[in-house]
Amino acid sequence: MALLETRGLTAFYGDFQALFGVDIALDEGETVAVIGANGAGKSTLLRSISGLIRNVPGQIRFDGREIGGLAAPDVLQLGIAMVPEGRRLFPSLSVEENLLIGRYGRVGNGAWSLDAIYDLFPVLKERRHQPGTALSGGQQQMVAIGRGLMSNPRVLLCDEVSLGLAPVVVRDIYAAFPKIRATGASIVIIEQDIGQALKVADRVYCMMEGRVTLSGTPATLSREDIHAAYFGAHAR
Amino acid sequence: MNWIDTIIQGILLGGLYALFAAGLALVFGIMRLVNLAHGDLIVLAAFLILLLVSALGLNPFIATAAALPVMFVLGWAMQFLVLNRTLGNDILPPLLVTFGLSVVIQNGLLEGFSADSRRISAGALETASLQIGPISIGTMPLLTFLSAVGVIVALNLIFYRTSLGRAFRATSDDSATAGLMGIRAERIFATATGLAMMVVTIAALYLGTRANFDPTMGPARLIYAFEAVIIGGLGSFWGTLAGGIIIGVAQTVGATINPEWQILAGHIAFLLVLLVRPRGLFPRAVD
User: Fold this and answer.
1) Is the dihedral of CA B227, B148, B47, B207 positive or negative?
2) Higher model confidence: residue A158 or residue B91?
3) Do B173 and A51 touch (CB under 8 A)?
4) Spatial separation of the C-alpha atoms in residues B169 and A96, rounded to whole Å
5) Contact B180 A76 (CB under 8 A)
6) Out of A50, A82, A104, closest to residue B167 by CB
7) A64 domain residue, yes or no
8) Which of A11, A123, A161, B237 is the most exposed place for a label (fewest CB within 10 A)?
């Protein structure tokens, strides 16, 4: 059985329906990428899993439990941490404090500590006493990822980590993912950068207009299939 | 020499106003909640101390120590059960509800303790003083001031050196993202109000031993607290001490010139500071 799965997940913002029966699954130790254009429902999917949006309890299951109805702090405590879109560092906190707050709600079993994060992203150590918001976009993203890891999550949800960053910076950040995987964490990555997503993921889901339109392993998916699922051209 | 004496008395009085203000600043800084019942809660705490002193014959300082956890629990419950429900994008509900609480507390105290004005006796300490050269400093005013400094140092340590303080600041920045860190905003807010009520209790000890108090005098204390917070710049604890001192000195200087001017001089000083520094003396970076 999958570690984390959604079954027919629906989500709403008021009267607006954003997800129409999404089924995805993540196995222990696996990295899954969810790709799709703006407004496809990728972020809504992660916000649903992380508890920022409440859903029907049985539509999201983690480790055999129904978690769709839980609030964000309860979801974190079970071992699902989120790196939110736009990084969302706390402006009143220094870089180190931003990392430390990552373990406020949970200190799971695992390798992650301040020192381990500084090993992963050495530049953060030099700047640890500066306000989080004084850093460059790429460094802020490193803090956001480190903050998510500090709770030693079983599942790390990453929402658009490459958004607004230069390609060379994106490469630096993605270079960290093999090391994160090596600690045993399962990862869900949301990306608009398809090339990056295909490189790190074991499996890929493509979403469009609140539905999964394509899924498979990077090796089996052709560019044309992805293009069709992404933009809706030649939809089957 | 008379002037130096006046100013020192004013500074020490400022310590009392800083104690009134620190709890207000704490709550406002974390959840942007303006508690209009703050002054009445100080008076409530003063009656609680009075009750412990008169019923159990406790020393007022020991009675205050006993009242601290009681007031923490009261503040925690008040925030968790009532005030959390008023927080949101609309600023009116918390104002209305705390205004209602203010009325309820005043009338509850009137019912329970009558309208008589009371005082907490601190025994020989009340009249004790230190003689430094030609200036005599009352022991109780000095203790008040030192307590204010102690409270502000403690609040700063909690805010900037502890895990709880990080959670306070993170929740204040962005409570949704704080939730992703496992921080439960409703409990953080309750803990903050509990802490504020402990500061209120310390303020109540010095309010009650310094002069007479009665159930209706809360709102006037609220005004001084507000003025000190705003002079200091919203969200800075040391700023509230500076604000308290400015009001205290203005009041004692005003009273020396003409006793009728005491209260007015404090308010005028507040308006003058606002005129020159509309965001207060030590505003927090960006709000």
Assistant:
1) negative
2) A158
3) no
4) 14
5) yes
6) A104
7) yes
8) A123
**pLDDT score at A107:** 81
A236 belongs to a structural domain: no
Residue A61 lies in a domain: yes
Answer yes or no: is the ipTM higher than 0.95: no
Q: Is B254 exposed, middle or buried (0-12, 13-18, 19+ CB in 10 A)?
A: buried
Which among B167, B176, B182 has CB closest to A77? Answer: B182
Inter-chain residue contact A90 with B167, CB threshold 8 Å: no
Packing angle of the helix pair B185-210, B163-173 (nearest 10 deg): 110
Overall average pLDDT of the B140-146 stretch: 96
Among B265, B255, B228, B229, CA closest to B244: B228
> In chain B, which residue's Cα lies nearest the Cα of A96?
B166
Number of domains in chain A: 1
- Give the chain B residue nearest A81 (alpha carbons): B180
**What is residue A9's predicted lDDT score, i.e. its pLDDT?**
96
Rg of chain A's alpha carbons, rounded to an integer?
17
Give chain B positions within 8 Å (CB) of A51.
179
Query: What CATH number has the domain bearing residue A9?
Result: 3.40.50.300
Chain A, chain B: beta-carbon pairs less than 8 Å apart: 65
Segment (H or E) for A214: strand A211-216
Percentage of the residues of chain A whose pLDDT score is greater than 90: 81
Among A66-80, A131-145, A191-205, B66-80, which is the least confidently predicted range?
A: A191-205
Residue A150 belongs to a domain: yes
Give the CA count within 13 Å in the CB-facing half-sphere of B25: 36
- Identify the band that residue A235 occupies on the pLDDT scale cut at 50, 70 and 90: very low
Amino acid letter for position A180:
I
Q: Is the alpha carbon torsion for B211, B57, B125, B75 positive or negative?
A: negative
DSSP B130: E
In angstroms, what separates the C-alpha of B28 from chain A's closest C-alpha?
16
The answer to whether the beta carbons of residues B63 and B56 sit under 8 Å apart is yes
Element (H, E) at A11: strand A4-13
Residue B287's pLDDT is 46
Confidence at residue A233, expressed as pLDDT on a 0 to 100 scale: 62
Range of the domain at A48: 4-231
